[in-house]
Structure formats: C-alpha cells, structure tokens
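Example 3.2
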Amino acid sequence: MSRVKKGTNALKTRKNILKQTKGYRFGRSTKERQAYEAIVHAGSHAFAHRKDKKSDFRKMWNVRINASVRSLENSKIASYSRLIDALNKKNILINRKMLADLGANHPEVFAKIVETAA
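Structure, written as tokens:
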C-alpha cells in the first residue's frame, strides 16, 4: 500500500484544533482526537455556564437586597420578599441589580425607596 500524506486542508484543521487547546494537559494538547474532544466538551460547558452566570448574579443581588432591607431600622418592610411585593404593588419599576447596588453603595437612597414602597 502506498503512503498517503495529509492534504493542506487537514493540516490546517489540525493546526487550528491544536491552537485552541494550548495550555491543556497531557494528550489533550498534542493529540488531534483528544484535542478535538476536549474542545467539544469545553464548548458545551462554556455555553451552559454562561447561562448559569445569569442565575448566580440574580441570587447574589437577592441576598444583597435582603441584607440591606434587614439592616434598615424603623422600617415596616423587614425582608426581601416583602420589599419586592411592595414595589410591585406600588408599580415601582426598578431591577434587582440596581436595588442591590443602591443598598450597598447608597444606603440613604435605598432607604427612601423602601420608605416609598411601604
């Protein structure tokens, strides 16, 4: 049987795959099949975790808002859930990211919002 060398397209594909796996350990950075499998798995995890990140941030904002509400003294509203309910009933449209930021960095403004919602 005669020897067959890889064509230019196959070499280009191999080069690009191995370039993407730079820094991976063991055969995943040097062997074409293992490298390709590593790229596929890494891509699927990256996609899923981009979605998870949004959930993680929302959870963090909720915790910060709750801490800020509980730190307020002389307030009728004593928890995160009651604050969100009061804001919805008064039609005060402000997102959780902004509420968390106000609670952490501008407590006097946050207190006014809570007072308005109560």
